[in-house]
Amino acid sequence: MNARTLTLRGIIPSMVTPFDNSGKLERDWLKRETEFLTQADVDGLCVGGVISETAGARPEEVHLICKTVISSTNKPVIAGIFPDCTSEALELASACASAGAQALSVSPPHYLFCPDREGLIELFAAVREQVDVPVLLANSIPTAQVDLTSMTALTDRGLIDGIHQGAGNAHLLADILNLKSRLAVYTGVEDLLYMAFLLGAEGAISALAAVFPKDCVALYRAHQNRDFDRARKIHEKLNRWWRILDHPVEFLSRVKSALALQQRPVGVPRSPYNVLSAYGQSSVQEALERQLKLP
Q: What is the pLDDT of residues 94-106, one digit of tens each?
């Protein structure tokens, strides 16, 4: 199969999905958050990513989320899906494509078991035939990392058009960026965004960019302009923030708390992830107050 051109470059926030206390989608909040990120001069948007809470969502809900974001922005929109089998992947892919997503980001199945290389090839070949938009491999699940050899096999068969490498796996990201012939690569290694840009990544699909889009855009633009001193300072600022947000239990709650403290209401995470200790809340609030005073 032939590769499809994926021209998107730069900062692509991996958006949160606003829910009310019962877990119902808050469309008005989603529209406002989309408009805010658009006005922050990001280069694209990603719905259904690692902090979207849409793993396990029904195709109808995924379609509605995609449609809401796409109708509220003039930026390209990538739709992420987390299927557990090929049939689910096809249903979710169709839901995203019919909503108007310009590209599809597909995570490997990871529930109970991870497929081998041939299983991945079978899944991505089926998705390839199902949709006409570019397809990315979303390698962002820590417990289901696709190895370099399997990624090369998917690339050689023309089944993917780009790779989103996250899960804190900087070693694999470096290996991908070191390939002589490679597809578009987007980093999701949050504390090393700047490193990825220096090594040639086309952009970042980033949770940090959803919380601090202007800082992430400024980092990318400073790198493009070879203003390395400014880029290093922004990198350090973002890393201090990532240390506060990155938590094994409270991550989603801390992210949504940071947004609420910036007057960007997005509700609370869906149960059972709606956990935020008093310490976590105060840490986010104190860090936000402190960081806003720093260059």
A: 999 999 999 999 9
185 and 163 in contact (C-beta within 8 Å)?
yes
pTM for the whole structure: 0.95
Domains of the chain from N-terminus onward: 10-227 (3.20.20.70)
Give the up-direction half-sphere exposure of residue 232: CA atoms within 13 A in the CB hemisphere.
4
The whole-angstrom separation of Cα 97 and Cα 115 is 24
Q: What angle do CA 134, 99, 258 make, to 5 degrees?
A: 90
CA distance linking residue 101 with residue 68, whole number of Å: 11
CA distances, 80 to each of 139, 227, 265, 271, 277 (Å): 11, 32, 22, 21, 29
In this structure, are residues 212 and 229 in contact, taking their beta carbons and an 8 Å threshold?
no
What does the pLDDT look like over 19-43, one tens digit per residue? 999 999 999 999 999 999 999 999 9
pLDDT at 47: 98
* For residue 83, cis peptide bond before it (omega within 30 degrees of 0): no
Start-end of H helices in the chain: 27-39, 59-70, 86-99, 117-130, 148-156, 170-177, 193-198, 207-211, 213-224, 228-245, 251-261, 278-291
